[in-house]
Write a structure and sequence with these properties.
With about 350 residues, this protein is of the alpha/beta class. It has 13 helices and twelve strands.
Length: about 350
């Protein structure tokens, strides 16, 4: 098969980890007889510096005409530390999600047998954890009307959802649950928020279409507590944009390192695949960043193409590297630490 894949390295460690994912993807393509044409494009702070726009039209054209997008990270401290900045790298990510119709963020959380002791949670609490969050990406408070009034002394951010937005996300959640353990949890704050009541009544109305799925409804604060107490009690969870943003970062530490968790953002036509970590500018250019999450995001990309064996080949080689200690300094426990590029080379060679 032939694939055109948009390559958005972004900022900070993005270019370094993307380089390793490309190496591994090319190795998989060669092994299984595929051909990948990579289409580099600018986004984030790098795009602001070049053309003044964090998601330029040229970048959108490349993404929209590709089979998938492999994405690194965006963000830079000079924008984080300037509340008055009118243009920010993160605006490019929001614009891209909206423009490409990427409404469902798929965030798996799973454990690696060789790394159970590296989690901040007790081994007996996390062993066997394998859950997936589906976070709605293009609605809610991030996209609602916002502003200041009373001469800047009062600020507001409106959270708005339509029933159709909830239905399309919930549909993906039910379908994913059917392919797994047939358990679905709808996370909301329906005791307080009107948008959450819309979420809950919409999902309840859909239950009849998926009679085999066991559906539960939990408040977001309760889920935040249970995630660190009994994470393996969850399977598929669906939630709105802000709640999902917070809960998926909380869940990411279960595995022992944010540098291990991949993600996908899916729409009707195209998928974007990226690590869950940020741009980590302090590590940029030092060859110390963990590329595993980006490499595993490439595995999700192949699986989204229906190429399960290719995805498994990547997951297997990552597990082999972890078992054999071929890891960057965040996982080395004071032992030998490999560089970002060296880990990428090892993974590609072992594919």
């Amino acid at each position: 098969m032939k694939f055109n894949i948009a390559l958005l390295a972004g900022d900070g460690i993005g270019p370094e980890v993307i380089e390793q994912a490309v190496k591994v993807s090319d190795a998989v393509a060669e092994k299984f007889g595929h051909e990948i044409s990579w289409k580099p494009a600018l986004t984030g702070a790098a795009a602001i510096d070049a053309v003044g726009d964090p998601y330029p039209d040229d970048t959108h054209d490349i993404c929209a005409s590709s089979d998938a997008v492999l994405f690194g990270a965006i963000g830079h401290p000079r924008f984080d530390n300037d509340p008055s900045a009118k243009v920010r790298p993160e605006q490019g990510l929001l614009k891209m999600r909206k423009a490409l119709g990427l409404f469902a963020n798929v965030r798996p959380t799973f454990t690696f047998p060789s790394l159970l002791d590296k989690s901040p949670l007790k081994k007996e609490r996390i062993e066997g954890t394998d859950l997936v969050f589906l976070r709605e990406l293009t609605g809610g408070i991030y996209f609602g009307e916002k502003g200041r009034r009373e001469e800047g002394e009062t600020a507001y951010d409106n959270c708005v959802y339509t029933r159709k937005e909830v239905q399309r996300l919930a549909k993906k959640g039910f379908e994913l649950a059917m392919s797994r353990s047939k358990k679905l949890c709808c996370v909301d704050k329906a005791n307080v928020l009107e948008t959450s009541r819309l979420w809950r009544e919409t999902v309840q109305a859909m239950e009849k279409d998926y009679p085999e799925v066991e559906v539960s409804y939990e408040f977001v604060d309760a889920v935040a507590m249970r995630l660190v107490q009994w994470p393996n009690s969850y399977d598929v969870l669906i939630t709105e944009n802000l709640f999902g943003d917070i809960l998926t970062d909380e869940a990411s530490v279960i595995s022992g390192s944010m540098g291990l968790m991949p993600s996908a953002s899916l729409g009707a036509k195209i998928g974007l695949f990226e690590p869950i970590h940020g741009s980590y500018p302090q590590a940029a250019g030092k060859n110390i960043a963990n590329p595993m999450a980006t490499v595993l995001s490439a595995a999700m990309m192949f699986e989204n193409f229906g190429l399960q064996d290719e995805g498994k080949a990547i997951r297997d080689v990552v597990n082999k590297a972890l078992n054999e200690g071929v890891v960057t300094e965040d996982l080395s426990d004071g032992g030998k630490a490999y560089g970002t590029k060296e880990v990428g080379d090892w993974l590609a060679e072992n594919i």
